[in-house]
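Data card: per-record layout.
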Amino acid sequence: MNEAEDIKTGLEGVKEEKTSDLGDNFKKGVFLIAMLLLLVATFKLYFSIERIIDVWFERQYVPIFRAVYNFLVLVVSLYIIRLYILRR
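The structure for this 88-residue chain is written out next.
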């Protein structure tokens, strides 16, 4: 009888592990989908701002504003990467 209880307890532990693995995999999947959507939205925003610069500013000033905009994107990206590296 004692062996049967041990087997039953072992099987319940396996069920709990599978359930927690399924929940973890679901959370990871949702996170990956959200990150993919964030990446797409970021690219679309970047190129939309590029088009806005073309529309709003005179042709002779467009390269200057693009350079400033790209520099700001670079600074913000480096700052985020720096924060990520420091947290590790």
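Known properties of this structure: The chain has a mean pLDDT of 83. The radius of gyration is 26 Å.

See the next section for split statistics.
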